[in-house]
Write a structure and sequence with these properties.
Elements lengths: L1 H10 L12 E3 L11 E4 L5 E4 L8 E5 L6 E5 L14 E10 L2 E9 L8 E7 L7 E8 H4 L8 E5 L2 E6 L5 E6 L13 E4 L3 E9 L2 E8 L11 E7 L20 E4 L5 E5 L5 E2 L5 E9 L7 E11 L2 E3 L8 E3 L9 E8 L2 E7 L7 E6 L5 E2 L8 E3 L10 E8 L2 E8 L2 E7 L20 E8 L5 E8 L3 E7 L13 E4 L17 E9 L2 E8 L8 E7 L7 E2 L7 H4 L5 E7 L5 E7 L10 E10 L2 E4 L5 E2 L3
Antiparallel strand pairs: 1-23, 2-3, 3-4, 4-5, 6-7, 7-8, 8-9, 10-11, 11-12, 12-13, 14-15, 15-16, 16-17, 18-20, 19-20, 20-21, 21-22, 24-25, 25-26, 26-27, 26-28, 29-30, 30-31, 32-33, 33-34, 34-35, 36-37, 37-38, 38-39, 40-41, 41-42, 42-43, 42-44
Length: 614
């Protein structure tokens, strides 16, 4: 009823005075001519939109929630603007992240130049640029495809591909690993007929969905543009409509038609999924009331019915419930409290990049990513090229240190601030003879440092070893196994051959050492947190029979791999991750729960669970 009531009130407000709310939004979401939009959620958590250059040099807009957008600049300026095909304009960009670069594919074309047009590529370190042009990938007469515009990039099965075309057939071809060139020897393949342009391929479940736009794009109130779709079990087809007829023979399904208020809706962006698991599509269209204003930006929700995309009424909406954003998606989270500020780190949804950090004064309201390196506390100048997982931050003397996983090995980096940048003088891992993950450094009362970690040997097993004074290596002769998962218990509910016990956190209270740990694969709904106790940091460890934190007392699946810490009031808190939705594991969300001691163990404070949000 809340959404309905808000919508009724909003409909009584004029378009000129309508204000976006957390509950609803009004179309168009950007009332400026920005044809052929493409959207990416960047590493800083913001969405960036790029469009055909009605604003010269490829306009860029930014938003935190897909509804409120601000102009932040252009991808190029008159000096950096692509020089090839000098009479051509910059059309239909497609933005992507490949390795550590933002890669922008674009069309360079003029009206009628169907054999001189082509597709170029540019890169930047940041989503707002500046972008450096790398020239054309190909032009129409070179590739043998008339009207080679409207690029779309997709990475699939470890390979990169580009799809393109406009009313002369839709084609795809493999690119190099960096995405900056056609792979030598690659041959183009045709995937659709001559009815469409504006290619976008969305992978969902066991299908690839080929979206496009049919009709005339750019004739104002006479435009006949509409969004189409077909699907296939394979990236290169065959794509078919609901009756099984091929798109190569110009069959298709229509997803979105014009309405009385919007003419020529089409050339949609990538589908964006919000924090509630709902899918959203941005596209351009003409306002029927003012077609001379150009192609402005609209957005509507995409639902899925019997394996096909559906948009309500098959036409643009006026006022709708808004996408929901704000949840923080960090797996394997850890919280470090320093000088009145909480710092939150964890495995990011882009785990091959580094570690973000968020900050809070009260554990309720978080801001960020706030790391010193464009939101990252650690990125570059350290050991590792992939799999940046499970960080831990601690202070020693006047330096802040981060222990972390990369390349399934452990490393420690240093910074002058909890915000980083955490770096190493020489990129180096802690010496190890086996694969290791999930470090936790613990200092005992006598000043000795211990490294709790997981060794990947006949399962994920938690080990401990004493660290040398400079923290550069362990005393391997002190290493011993602490805990492994016990089959037939809550620690192994799927009876797997490779059992999982991971994510150790250790504290000492009085004379007792407490280890928090997680068992089951993180994708298992029964992933949960247990507690074990010992009289020595080297063990032996005695487990509590039941988990302390699980889906049964939290109400979410996959609860685990976190960190225990005291808040500013001295109360125990445990930060952990859980599954994104009941049906989808990733990107995992971050949660907090209050704990209290009960004898030799801990229990959850009833009603204390909360989702960590900005």
């Amino acid at each position: 009823m809340k959404h309905l009531f808000t919508a009724i009130i909003a409909m009584a407000v004029s378009a000129s005075s309508f204000a976006q709310t957390a509950a609803t939004y009004r179309n168009p979401i950007i009332d400026t001519s920005l044809p052929d939009p493409t959207v990416i959620r960047a590493d800083d958590g913001y969405f960036y939109l790029y469009a055909t250059e009605n604003i010269r040099n490829t306009p860029i807009y930014r938003s935190a929630d897909l509804t409120d957008w601000k102009f932040v600049g252009t991808a190029f300026n008159d000096q950096s603007r692509p020089k090839w095909n000098p009479k051509g304009n910059l059309w239909a960009p497609d933005i992507n992240k490949i390795d550590r670069k933002y890669v922008l594919y674009y069309s360079k074309s003029e009206w009628g130049g169907e054999w001189t047009c082509g597709i170029g590529v540019a890169t930047a370190d940041r989503p707002e640029g500046p972008f450096t042009d790398h020239g054309s990938l190909f032009i129409s007469k070179e590739i043998g495809v008339q009207n080679s515009i409207d690029p779309f990039f997709i990475s699939d099965g470890g390979h990169n591909y580009l799809f393109w075309g406009s009313f002369r057939g839709i084609y795809g071809i493999e690119l190099t690993a960096d995405g900056l060139a056609v792979k030598p020897g690659a041959e183009k393949q045709r995937v659709a007929g001559t009815f469409m342009e504006g290619t976008y391929i969305h992978k969902r479940g066991g299908y690839y969905y080929l979206f496009g736009s049919a009709g005339t794009c750019c004739e104002g109130e006479k435009s006949t543009y509409r969004v189409t779709v077909g699907r296939s079990k394979n990236l290169f087809g065959p794509y078919v409509d609901k009756q099984g007829r091929p798109l190569t023979e110009n069959h298709f399904e229509v997803v979105l038609h014009r309405s009385k208020d919007v003419v020529g809706p089409g050339h949609n962006s990538e589908i964006v999924t919000d924090d509630e698991g709902h899918d959203w599509m941005l596209y351009h269209g003409f306002k029927a009331s003012d077609p001379d204003a150009g192609r402005v930006v609209y957005m509507d929700r995409v639902e899925w019915l019997d394996g096909w995309p559906v948009m309500k009424g098959e036409e643009p909406s006026n006022i709708s419930p808004a996408p929901q954003f704000g949840a923080i998606h960090l797996a394997d989270p850890t919280v470090f409290f320093d000088n009145g500020t909480y710092y939150l780190y964890g495995t990011t949804p882009v785990a091959d990049t580094g570690f973000w950090t968020y900050t809070s004064k009260n554990l309720k309201h978080w801001s960020g990513p706030a790391g010193a390196d464009d939101g990252f506390a650690l990125r570059g100048h350290t050991y590792g090229t992939k799999g940046f997982w499970a960080p831990q931050v601690f202070k020693r003397g006047d330096k802040y240190l981060m222990a972390y996983t990369a390349n399934e090995q452990l490393a420690i980096a240093e910074a002058d601030s909890p915000l980083g940048p955490f770096m190493q003088k020489q990129p180096v891992m802690l010496p190890a003879a086996v694969r290791e993950i999930d470090p936790f450094v613990f200092f005992d009362d006598n000043g000795k440092a211990y490294l709790y970690h997981v060794r990947l040997t006949n399962g994920n097993r938690i080990f401990v070893a004493e660290l040398n004074d400079d923290l550069s290596s362990v005393k391997e002769e002190t290493a011993r196994e602490c805990i492994s998962a016990k089959p037939g218990t809550w620690e192994d509910t799927q009876n797997v051959e490779w059992t999982v016990c991971e994510g150790p956190t250790v504290v000492k209270i009085g004379k007792t050492y407490y280890m928090f740990y997680s068992c089951n694969d993180f994708r298992n709904i029964d992933y949960a947190v247990g507690v074990a106790t010992a009289k020595s940091p080297l063990g032996p460890w005695k487990k509590q029979k039941k988990p302390v934190i699980s889906r049964h007392n939290i109400g979410h699946n996959g609860t685990g791999h976190g960190d225990l810490f005291r808040d500013a009031h001295g109360e125990w808190q445990y930060v952990f991750h859980f599954h994104d939705t009941d049906s989808r594991v990733s990107p995992r969300r971050t949660g907090l729960v209050s704990l209290r001691q009960k004898g030799k163990t801990f229990e959850v404070v009833p009603g204390s669970f909360r989702i960590v949000e900005r």
